[in-house]
Amino acid sequence: MKHMNLQPENETQTTSSPTRARIRPRFQLADIGALLLSTVLALTIWLIAVNQENPLIVQELETPIPLTVVGLSEGLEIVQDLSAESVTLDLRAPRSSWENMRPGDFRAVLDLTGLGVGEHDVSVRITRRDPQVTVLDVQRPEYTITIDRRLEKEVPVQVEVMDGAAFGYEFLQPIYTPMTVTVRGPESQVEQVVRARAEIFLRSAKSQVERTQQLVPVDAQNRPVDRVEVAAPGRVQIVVPVEQWPGRKEVAVRVKLFGPPANGYRLSAVRSEPSTVVLQGDPDILSQVPGFVETEPLDLTGATTDVRKRVALLLPEGVTSFDGDFVMATAGITPIVGGVTVSEPLIVRGLGPGLTAETALQEVDVILSGPIPLLESMNEDDVFVILDLTGLVAGTHTVAPTIVVPNGIDQEAVIPETVEVVIRQRDAENGGLLLPQVPDVEATAISTTGTPEAAMGETPTPNNTSQPTSVETQLP
């Protein structure tokens, strides 16, 4: 009986086991769903919090990004000038990215790799440094690019004088170097170039003008050709000789003085308005006129203030002045601190080889001021008047002298302010013109520490040995 009663118990246990096994998995799926839901909710809440703290902002980048061209094959050129091209970007980025954003974080690239001669539509590729930044739009996302072969050719140089010399003067044919230059660029552009042009302004010059000017490639109508450059150095050295008209001569005005100022006063400056005048007359008579004309005496007797008076020019018979026969002369009178007027011989330097120079004056007056003991201790070797003729060609020139004075001494004025110098070829023949032989005006070698050569950092020499300028010049 006991055995019979055990069988139902076994059956009951057997039938209840499957029920319990089915219930357990149902509880596990419910737990997973709840976990997923809570994760999604937490992520959503976090994203909302992050967006409130650091929201995404959409706007245009303030600074345009310059265009960068890469991949152009060797021997090719772009016909268009893209150097000033740029693109504007519309961006989306977190506020923190906008706060740290710089134009240098972006690059706008036109990649021409593999493209040959012809016209091509090329898309702009934008690269960015911050991965949180999204480029929404590129204003002008594509460019039409024309590619041409690179060409070089040699063209002549043309120098054009844009204005004129001073009244009574004329300029001669410019002398320049180089005579030809190489230009390069896209073939279609280079083929239009016929010369390289330079402009020079004389601005009423009275002596030769020297300039170094930039060359510009131009077509047959003198219009600049874009995208073509002149090979280095791309500049031309120009010398324009300027000569005086026949029957005309420009000379300095030398104010003649009479009488001393009052006791305790000194002469500090002398000037005339104008400081030079243009004379006209028979060329033979003008050739005898030195490089200056004097005025009637300006009386300084007893003067304690500046003396200003209209005085007549003392002109040779048969000679008149384009500027009138009178000038306004002014003599500066100042209380004596210490002043002296000395007459100093002219020292010529910088004269080119094969040339001789003749000055209208052998000496000029120099007005000096300074402590009286210094002035009293000066000797003839302490003050020098130098005429620098470096680079001047044959002809008549007006040169302002350079004054070298000891330390502590001031130069107040030079009478006259300019000196006429006539430069001639040393040889008898020069292009069929017979030129007279004129002795050299040589610089005297001074051995004292106050020599002009020492003051200028040069070794004193008995004769003029200055080298010619680097620009080769010749008489036309």
Give me a quick take on this structure.
This protein has 476 residues and is an alpha+beta fold.
Average pLDDT for all residues: 82
Give the assembly state of these chains: single chain
The number of helices is 6
State the total count of DSSP E strands.
36
Give Rg in angstroms: 45 Å
CATH class of the largest domain: Mainly Beta
Q: Summarize the biggest pleated sheet.
A: 12 strands, mixed
Count of domains: 4
DSSP strand (E) fraction?
A: 35-45%
Q: What fold name stands as the CATH topology of the largest domain? A: RNA Polymerase Alpha Subunit, Chain A, domain 2
The CATH architecture of the largest domain can be named as Beta Complex
Percent of residues in helical segments?
10-25%
Form type: elongated
C-alpha termini separation: 153 Å
Structural class: alpha+beta
* Low-pLDDT sequence parts: 1-21, 428-476
Model description:
It contains six helices and 36 strands. The strands form nine sheets. Strands 1, 2, 3, 4, 5, 6, 7, 8, 11, 12, 14 and 15 form a twelve-stranded mixed sheet that branches. Strands 32-30-27-29-33 form a five-stranded mixed sheet, with no helix packed on it. The chain has a four-stranded mixed sheet with strand order 22-18-21-25, with no helix packed on it. Mean pLDDT is 82; it is low at 1-21 and 428-476. With 476 residues, it is α+β, with helices and mostly antiparallel strands. It folds into four domains: 58-140, RNA Polymerase Alpha Subunit, Chain A, domain 2; 151-244, RNA Polymerase Alpha Subunit, Chain A, domain 2 (Beta Complex); 246-336, Beta Complex (RNA Polymerase Alpha Subunit, Chain A, domain 2), CATH 2.170.120.40; 338-476, RNA Polymerase Alpha Subunit, Chain A, domain 2. β35 (429-430) and β36 form a beta hairpin. The protein starts with a helix and ends in a 21-residue tail after the last helix.
